[in-house]
Design brief:
With 473 residues, the chain is mainly α. It folds into 2 domains: 6-182, no CATH class; 187-273 and 352-472, no CATH class. Helices cover 66% and strands 0% of the residues. The chain has 17 helices and no strands. α9 (226-257) crosses α14 (365-386). The relative contact order is 0.10.
């Protein structure tokens, strides 16, 4: 079920009203959230429910086993890893590695018929797999106690607002919220509705209106001018940001309405002044997941400089592969790792911890140059993320610099206006968790702004309800 679909517009208020009726019965509320989440997820394909149920059962049992049988905790952890990574490997990576191995054999003169699987990638499998893995790993490390309430645990794993595209919640933060009564307030409902509206605007107005042009430019990149190719990657940068952060805003706003608090997943990443700051602001829940469960276990920065550099690059490459079974994602991750590494090794990776242009209307010239430079580097990497093959990515970049720069701006003017509205709104609200998190000015000005964005979402939204990009990951 898509957040931007008419079905969800009916599902959400109905689910919320039933949830309120059970407000005095915590276990019934959790059971209802579990049922509602399975309906939400099963809307795509009921067969996918079996996978999430298996992951839930295995990890719940693994947590209990690690607590009751300390000597067998490694076995229980191993079963959890094998199950979750096995499911992820079969459905997402099996064909990729088989095809890559076949190409390697062919390159050395060995012809071999590849055996591939005809499987559908379950929506959001990477997200809920990582969420449940973080639970068993934290139980194994003794950081949290295992959950003994299966309904609460199953509701935590399948919680519908963030199930298919995050944020990837840690059990230490979200699971306790299923063990205590949630307080639903008018203030929380109003704040959640404002965040949902902002997410819908970013997704349905900005991202979806950019999608068609991005698809056309990238699919026909061989015949486009250098200027059009540059516009294509610029539009994709804002498409993927508004698409993904829009989902996160809707997820956080929906959760807030139900009395839950989720972690912030985006903090205005395109206002970053270096790549390290960008990765502290982009897909925060995934970045911190890889830091805690990949980078630090590899040794982090405890070893020699060479080992630290290796750990950084491995983490970024695995992060790239997490996004998809294609060498383009691996290269995208490696590029970001290579851009991050000089800052990290020189100790400058935590230079920009404050908000840009703090307490001023405009950035300084130095801040503006650093933001534009960072954005340019991010856009170069985005070409590899969006391209179908590595050859297409290199051809696309070559086309930008080698072909004539001519363009009919009238074709793209309306999209630039949408991006301008987005940037101005986010710049004015960059000190908040999202632009409408606090009253913008006086009550009537605030209501006028909210009314404008509601009107804009209704009038300018695409009506074909495109899927969120990160559903494929």
């Amino acid at each position: 079920m898509l957040f931007s679909s008419p079905e969800f517009a009916v599902f959400l208020p109905c689910a919320f009203l039933l949830y309120l009726l059970l407000s005095k019965h915590l276990r019934l509320q959790n059971a209802f959230l579990l049922i509602a989440s399975y309906i939400f997820y099963g809307w795509w394909d009921t067969r996918f429910l079996l996978l999430i149920a298996v992951s839930t059962l295995v990890d719940f049992a693994a947590g209990i086993a690690m607590h009751r049988f300390p000597r067998g905790r490694r076995v229980a952890m191993g079963i959890s890893l094998a199950t979750n990574l096995g499911l992820l490997g079969v459905f997402k990576y099996f064909n990729f590695f088989i095809d890559s191995f076949q190409q390697l054999l062919t390159s050395i003169g060995i012809e071999q018929q590849a055996v591939t699987l005809n499987v559908i990638l379950p929506v959001g499998i990477s997200f809920y797999t990582f969420q449940t893995l973080s639970y068993t790993i934290d139980v194994y490390r003794g950081r949290i106690e295992p959950c003994k309430d299966f309904i609460a645990f199953a509701a935590f794993v399948s919680f519908f607002p963030q199930l298919v595209a995050g944020p990837i919640e840690r059990a230490a933060h979200l699971l306790p919220q299923f063990h205590r009564s949630r307080v639903v307030t008018l203030e929380g409902i109003w704040l959640g509705a404002r965040q949902i509206l902002w997410g819908l605007f970013k997704k349905m107005v900005v991202a979806d209106n950019l999608a068609g042009m991005v698809n056309t430019i990238f699919s026909e990149h061989q015949s486009q001018s250098g200027a059009v190719l540059a516009i294509g990657v610029l539009f994709f940068a804002f498409q993927i940001y508004c698409d993904f952060s829009g989902y996160s805003d809707i997820a956080l706003g929906t959760s807030r309405i139900f009395g839950f608090d989720l972690c912030i997943n985006f903090r205005y990443p395109y206002f970053s002044r270096d790549i390290a700051e960008f990765w502290r602001r982009w897909h925060i829940s995934l970045s911190t997941w890889f830091r805690d469960y990949v980078y630090i276990p590899l040794g982090g920065s405890r070893g020699a400089l060479r080992a630290t550099a290796r750990n950084v690059l491995i983490t970024f490459v695995i992060s790239g592969l997490w996004h998809g079974a294609n060498w383009t994602f691996v290269v995208w991750g490696a590029i970001n790792g290579l851009l991050f590494l000089p800052l990290f090794l020189s100790g400058k990776n935590r230079t920009n911890l404050d908000t840009v242009a703090q307490n001023t209307w405009l950035p300084s010239l130095s801040e503006a140059i650093r933001m534009l430079t960072t954005f340019l580097l991010v856009c170069i990497a985005w070409v590899f993320f969006r391209a179908e093959t590595l050859g297409d990515a290199f051809a696309y970049l070559n086309g930008i610099v080698s072909r004539p720069w001519y363009v009919d701006f009238d074709l793209y003017a309306s999209r630039f206006v949408l991006i301008g509205v987005l940037l101005i709104t986010e710049w004015l609200g960059r000190n908040r968790s999202f632009p409408f998190a606090k009253r913008i000015a006086g009550r009537w000005v605030d209501l006028a702004v909210i009314a404008f964005f509601f009107w804009a979402t209704v009038i300018w939204a695409r009506t074909d309800h495109l899927e969120f990009i990160y559903f494929q990951f």
